[in-house]
Amino acid sequence: MSPTAPSGPSLAQILIETGVVSEAQVELARTRQHATGGRLGEALVDLGLATEEAIGRAIASALGVPYTNVDLSAVDPAVVSRFPEGLLRRALALPLIDSGGQTVVAMADPSDRAAVAELRTAAGTPISVVVGAPAAIRRALAEWRGGRKPAPASATVPQPPAAAAPRPAGAPAARPAPPAPVPRSAVTPPRPAGAEVLLRHLDAARGVRASEIHFVPAEGESYSVYYRTDGGLVQRESAPAGAVRAVREQLHTLGVPDLARPEDSFAQGWAALPVGDARVQFHTTHCRGSLGVASVLRLGPRLDVAPQVSALGLTPLAEAELTELCEGPEGIVIVHGPPRACGTTVLASLASLAAREDRRIVVLEAAPHAPYPPGTTRIRFGSRDQAARIWIDLMLGQGADVMLLDDVLQGESVEGLLGGATMGRLVFARTDWLDPKELLDFLARSRQARCALRDRPLVLIGLPAGRREGAAVWAPAEEGGLRPGTLTATLLSVEDRDALLSRR
Asked: Between residues 142 and 403, which one has the greater pLDDT?
């Protein structure tokens, strides 16, 4: 969870850049804003140019913070009481709970830095901001001011003493009546927001250097929560089904597809959030089973800048060969190995090495979280089969000087790298082949091999063969998540090429 509130572009910039509204619509809304004295977002909603939900989600996505459905039942009353009512109305903010030494505050516009600073001062602690819809925040504040405050988690409802009826002379004293049962709603803790449950687990998993979080349905409307650490899968806690459903809802607001229909059995997607002093990215998979939906989050640090090739553990000779290749106009680098072995990070490092002002870089990827150089055209694919069919047309149509294919070419489809379309270009691809010798033998049997292997530079980079789990996922960023010496490189000399082609 971020110890400070986000800073960055203004609300207008966010909405224009994310395509929610146009510049002309913003100017129209500002005219209304000046006339009514309201907020820009509210003016856009009043004019019918955008919905509150669309604005909220755009803000959340741009600032890298969660979007939450504000509900007074999820609020800790002791936390709200620390803030002046006038400040909350002016900032259009609602404190939710304290979590991990920070105060979680829902705001309609977290880009308002002055309001964030005032809230931080009033909290007396670091604050973590989430985005909430203005109408929901205003409604919750009105209910709070009107006296509809949620009872604290430890509160009981006192029962007024019953008036004693007159006792007839000589009658025994009546036994005191048993205390009236406390309504269940009075002792139930406030319902945690899905964002808070998610961030709490991300923070805890990162603290123990876990690489996965598992939410597994169990008997009796409950879930078992496991973390995968160096010691294997360890049960962390049991959680009510409602809390896990809230986590899935929050993941959906972050762009992770959910199982929307009963016939849907599988869904997956990527997201990233600030957690503590870092940003964590996670791949989420939902799967419908006999007891309910099981969800697994595969975690890892999100790098802001790709590590230098020298930090990837290659030999000096391989590093020099790659540098020379990237300085030239054409060549092929195939990064091969199992999933989750830092192949995407290696591609990003190669792209940084090849980046120049006079080159166009295009990436075809499954998730937009790798730190590619500024100006890179990033294209997400949904189906690998479709991506394998269109990448050549895409590369030619976009006039790419450098093309990166992240997990697009698996199995025999890697043969397409040797075709005539890749001549005159740098092409870096990640594939699932494990053995470099078998990969080279296969390429040598290709009908394009004689021209491609004789005339173009070719380097194979082998990823670690083992499954990277637990603390290995959290290797220092300056190492690119890899320890020195964990990558191998196969460099083809002229003799190697002749030997390969002679076996055809």
From this structure: 403
